[in-house]
Hints:
The chain is an all-alpha fold. The chain is built from 12 helices and no strands.
Amino acid sequence: MVDLLPLYLSLKLAAVSTAVLMVVAAPISYALVFHRIPGKSFLEALINLPIVLPPTVLGFYLLVALGPRGSFGRAWESVFGSPLLFTFTGIVVASLVYSLPFAVAPMKTAFCRIDRRLVENAQILGLNPMAIFFRVILPNSLAGVAASAILVFLHTIGEFGVILMVGGSIPGKTKVASIAIFEAVEALRYSDAWLMSLALVPVCYVFLLLVNRLTPEAQHGT
């Protein structure tokens, strides 16, 4: 019988990462689109760096930063009394860094489509930036925000190299579905790998269909 715990951990990791990144990416995207930020191009390049970096390179830097000798890892351990490496929390942090550009890009696109006159009118009416964000920006870009959440969810489910570097393969803690499939193939347990992969395919396919329905370009092409 196939162990479904790695699949559960993948879904849990994807759900937690998506929830956190929606909160983090929304104000970042809002600031990038509607505010003048010194060095904006450098900031955007930094946010998008995980897209072009090999996962093992990013995983190595995160391994150093989150480890007991890294500044972030030391600070975390001094506050919470437990290490970050090889824990579920650790792979969540790694996933947040790795998936951030996939959260920001769709939101930026959605925010850029908003008529600037709506924002200008809200400013004339005396709304502060936070009120504009919640009363004007978000209601007019829900499809883009939903597409962002779906892309982050799918990208997190497929993560492998970064998660393996930071979390290892601890059953019940950090052994997600992608790692379980790799180890099954390595051990020549092809039936287990087949069944685990088969469980992921329909989930990813349904979510991709949702992205296509939410993306205006895809709708125009149908």
